[in-house]
Amino acid sequence: MESISIEEVKRASQKGDRHWFDKDTMSFFHSRVSHDAYKVRDRAWFVSSERQEEDAAHPRLYSVRVCYLETGRIETVGTFQGHKTLGQAESAAIRAAAVYENGVEKGA
């Protein structure tokens, strides 16, 4: 597993989910993404966070995503907004990448 910049994931996404990282898309969903991703072979795992509204009544929640670097497709790993903290989501992203790296694709 190697750490790569989210910019590399953004470039790969241009092959498939071209609008995933668009400024308007990110703004509409109140989205943020981690600075780094965890790359294993042809995939990279990263964390995104979304918030329903920009107020205290709607907490920011975190999701683990995987980008298929050859096609640019991005999918959610596990449950959308399934993590309450960035740390929990980062740990889950690392675990998912490690599972894939070790040849067990279930959950990756």
Helix/strand layout:
Layout: E1 2-5, H1 6-13, H2 23-28, E2 32-33, E3 36-40, E4 43-50, E5 61-68, E6 73-77, H3 86-101
Antiparallel strand pairs: 1-3, 2-4, 3-4, 4-5, 5-6
Radius of gyration, in Å, reads 13 Å
The count of DSSP E runs of length 2 or more, i.e. the number of strands, is 6
Largest sheet: 6 strands, antiparallel
Mean pLDDT: 90
Oligomer: single chain
Fraction of helical residues: 25-40%
Strand fraction:
25-35%
Span of the ends, CA to CA: 14 Å
Written account of the structure:
The protein has one domain (2-101). It is built from three helices and six strands; from the N terminus they run E-H-H-E-E-E-E-E-H. It is of the alpha+beta class. Strands 1, 2, 3, 4, 5 and 6 form a six-stranded antiparallel β-sheet that branches. The chain is 28% helix and 30% strand. The model has no long low-confidence stretch (mean pLDDT 90).
Short characterization:
28% of the residues lie in helices and 30% in strands. With 108 residues, the chain is an alpha+beta fold. It is globular, with a radius of gyration of 13 Å.
From the structure above, extract its key features.
3 helices, 108 residues, globular, alpha+beta
